[in-house]
UniProtKB/TrEMBL annotation:
Protein name, as recorded: Phage terminase small subunit P27 family
Pfam families: Terminase_4
Region (Disordered): 15-37
Stored InterPro entries: Phage_term_ssu_P27
Length: 156
């Protein structure tokens, strides 16, 4: 599909760009939650997943549907850490078997990971520039229908 990616209705409301005639009434509205880290993550990545999920949920961004995107984020984050360790250990340039000096291949891996991390961080609103496009609305007052029923019954 050509053109810009459509924004979720919740994000349109937060940004103040929602137009009733352009809203999708059947759009899923998942609830904010902190999902468990996927089993394929190692301990370090799982800990980072949980840390980020709690942080994102606190800001109303994390739902169970976002677990895959966050898992990709922590996998790339872990790969970036490993590549950075190799760049630190060997330096930004290395000597080949033939004696030529080339850029450390791990530097390319680290740079690619940084670009991918930046894209995912932008999706979650984790960069200063992506946050400037979001205006937080006042939280809606939530009412418990059962509490209303009980209160209505006591005043009659």
């Amino acid at each position: 599909m050509a053109g810009r990616k459509p924004l979720p209705t919740r994000l349109k409301l937060v940004k103040g760009t929602a137009r009733p005639h352009r809203m999708n009434p059947a759009e899923p509205q998942p609830t904010v939650s902190v999902p468990a880290p996927p089993e394929h993550l190692d301990d370090t990545a799982a800990a980072k997943f949980t840390e980020m999920a709690v942080l994102l949920a606190r800001h109303g961004v994390m739902t169970e549907l976002d677990a895959g995107a966050l898992a990709r984020y922590v996998v790339i984050w872990r790969r970036w850490l490993e590549a950075e360790a190799e760049v630190k250990r060997r330096g930004p340039v290395v000597k080949t078997v033939g004696g030529n000096i080339i850029q450390n291949p791990f530097l390319s891996v680290a740079n690619k990971c940084l670009a991918q991390l930046g894209q995912i961080e932008s999706e979650f609103g984790l960069t200063p520039s992506s946050r400037t496009r979001i205006r937080m609305a006042a939280p809606a007052e939530t009412r418990d229908p059962f509490e209303d029923f009980l209160n209505r019954g006591s005043t009659a």
